[in-house]
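Why show two proteins at once? Because comparison is the fastest way to build intuition. When a single record is shown, students tend to memorize it. When two are placed side by side, the eye starts asking what differs. So, the first record is below.
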Amino acid sequence: MNELIPVGPVSPLRQRLVDDMTMRRFSRETQRNYIRDVGRFATWLGRSPHTATAEDVRRFQIEQQEAGVPVPTMNSIVAALRFFFTHTLDRPDLARKLRTAHAKLNTTAFYTQVATRTMRAVVSPLDRLALTSPSGEAPDG
């Protein structure tokens, strides 16, 4: 049911990308996502992505951020383009220009992360229990 349906001739560059991902045993879903994300960049660029420059990569990321592309989506695009530039095009210079996005954490999320790190840092089961008990003290016994 989840078979890919060819919609027309595949460019040699796209086929090379698919071959590179298949060789590395990427799942079908990852391949679909990477093809979509590289295609998104090519559409924005208006020409074949193998002609991209460092300035093109920079402008693309800025415009995506200004357009309100969510952080997880942008990071997915960065992963796809990083793979494409590094492995398919052998252009690690362009891959190095890509930056992952970072979401601003609200106060609750920040303190949740701090508490999680603190809990993971505790080695002793009694200390862990003390951190989780309502009074904050180790139980008698």
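Second record. Ask yourself what differs from the first in the token line.
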Amino acid sequence: MSFDFVDYKKDFPLLMQQDVAYLDSAATTQHPTQVLNAVVNYYTKENANPHRGVYELAMRATDAHEGARHTVAQFFNAEDDEIVFTQNTTESLNLIAYSYGMNFLHEGDEIVVSVAEHHSNMVPWQRVAKATGAKLVYISSDYVFGGSGTQPLEIDAPKDPQNIYGITKLGGEEEAKKYQKHFIVRTSWVFGINGGNFVKTMLRLADSHEKLTVVDDQTGSPTYTPDLARLICDMIKTEKYGTYHASNEGYCTWAEFAKEIMRQAEKATKIIPCTTAEYPAKAKRPENSRLSKKCLDDAGFDRLPPWQDALARFLKELDLA
């Protein structure tokens, strides 16, 4: 079934009145006409305290409230009593953290928070970890650094994030450090079977392009998610808390990475190197994402395999090699 964005947008009065792409729905959603009409209808015809009164208006309010719950339950193929209404995402995350976490997490359990998480899904788990004795694992990013220089970045190198993403990741690290039993794992250029990533993009574009222009002055280490996951599992078995760098061994530019993808996948697409200035992006990316693994050596953890080997295994996972 095709998706017609224009028809979908027509349901939202605010979006029709403004030329805007709204991407902040996790914080505040825009409301379609159907919802606005339902809200107006409720407040003008059925507004009362649900579940609290036996008079007709309150009973109609209760029916409307529970009717909405039933509709949502049907949509998710759930039971009515499995649906809990909250005010927003932040309240929902806190409810899960405190109701589930406080009751089921214990000393030695692990809480893993990824680089994608907002503060509202970081701070509650930090507090749960402190209260229960669980270990806190925070997956961070090379974006916390400024990205200058050509040498591998040590874990204590100066922090100078160049975009909002990097600023929020550094803020997450600072929150994690407030709890003693923490692992902060910085990684870079992640690829794997789930979600979009550079490898999948290059393979998709190779099917329709004879040549691709790729940046050649940003250097880092690709990271295969199964390799990263194994290392994190090894870490959380220990009490060697602290900050670590974890990426597959070896460094390359994006253009070199793309060339190796084409070579291993036996694609004929030619990779044309270019500079960052020639291929501008809205978010500034670090030129130097080389992460030093000395921290792994010092703690006795094994380094990850070379990124070329990781790429070969990923292509095999995709049935392309």
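One difference worth noting in the second protein: The first helix runs from residue 5 to 9.
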